[in-house]
Design a protein that fits this description.
With about 60 residues, the chain is mostly helical. The chain has a domain of about 35 residues. The two termini are about 10 Å apart.
């Protein structure tokens, strides 16, 4: 595997992390605007997404 393939693989995984985080944030934002989600639920969702992204990044580094 050359350097370009390695960088492409890593960038695809990073893009997946960003898309996942943004989708969940938009979903919680929509629920908050609709009055369904509370502030604490939004905070927990935000922290959860951050932890998932960090764990996924650690997994990617071990590849």
């Amino acid at each position: 595997m050359n350097l370009n393939d390695w960088l492409l693989l890593r960038s695809e995984h990073c893009l997946k992390n960003i898309v996942l985080a943004m989708l969940i944030k938009v979903m919680v934002l929509g629920l908050g605007v609709g009055g369904v989600a509370t502030l604490w639920e939004a905070v927990i969702a935000d922290v959860g997404v951050a932890l998932l992204a960090i764990l996924n990044a650690v997994r990617i580094q071990k590849m």
